[in-house]
Here is the input.
Amino acid sequence: MAVIINENYLLIKSNYIFSEINQRVEKYQNDNPDVDIIRMGIGDVTRPLPRAVVEKFTEAVQEMGDAKSFRGYGPEQGYDFLINEIIKNDYAPRGIDLAPDEVFISDGAKCDTGNIQEIFGLLNTVAVTDPVYPVYVESNVMAGRTGPMGDDGRYQKLVYIPCTEDNGFVPELPTTPVDLIYLCFPNNPTGTALTKEQLAQWVDYARENNSIILFDAAYEAYIREDNIPHSIYEIEGAREVAIEFRSFSKNAGFTGTRCAFTVVPQELVGFDGEGNPHSINSLWNRRQTTKFNGVSYPIQMATCAVYSPEGQKEINESIDYYMNNASIIRNSLENLGLRVYGGINSPYIWVKTPQAMDSWQFFDLLLDEAHVVGTPGVGFGPSGEGYLRLTAFNTLENTEKAMERISKLNL
Ligand code: MLT
Here is the structure.
């Protein structure tokens, strides 16, 4: 007998998009060692952790080295001290009541948005916006929910909801019933946002069709305009139909430190084959207690400092810094006559490729001639073909340099 693999893994592309880009960029750098490459591909931050966070982190590490204050396993769901800060600062001021057992601390929105599908049956129909953060799609492929990819680059059993220039990047409600709906707003990769009214249509749809919305709000800190919801629970009735994912990566620089959380309201139910209702919160709790041992104590203590006045001040400075980069990118590319989206309520800028180039051609051109790395839009799904994503997360100096180099190209 030989070991049999999970053949669903054979249905996914051999490389995760950001690994693929890294490999190409590394090869390019090896072939051209003297070239100074500016990375605006993966959405990784460059500003350091806030001082207030580092201080709390250091203090908590010291506690762990002292027998009197040492802590072993913490609660799998996270410590109450952090959960209470989240509820008090992120939700209560927006009029959203959450109970502590509705918030689950984790090591990343990527992990949670990838893992959440496990608690749902394989027969559910899954809808994703297109282009889309690849984790939602690929975690469902691995689970066996999507079937193989067709010639059109779409998994046959997934429902794709195009977000394109034609519809202003606003996803239209599905025409066939769907059970699970992944929404990410402000959107990765297009950088566009939904208004309260637009998101409310999805909440209404989910209520009418007994669907569940998996709402990724990892970029909410970048919202600048009024009338853009920071949480899906600002929409009436969302508690019964939505799970929300949040992250400290993009607002507080935790990409390398890892801390995030997921909100699973007690009202949410799913059904077994006999039609009996079951609490989604209990299922997620059951999943986490079996497979996850919680985020470390020092990290959770450090995360609390995000909410301190000093932490907030530093975080806001970083967000302003990145949003200044975003407007530099937008303006520079617009001045070159390119069609540019996003970058107003989000750190991502979504650029239409010039001269009818495809996404990878534009990627190669930018890498070869400007030594700037973007992410080819097609890596986020078929409707991303003909676009490229740039991030505002690099330094101001590099952002300006990148724009100067791009402006010298013959686009
Ligand atoms: C991205 O570039 O899309 C994100 O950085 C990926 C992530 O947050 O996992």
About this structure: The first strand starts at residue 38 and ends at 39. The chain is about 35% helix and 15% strand. The mean pLDDT is 97.
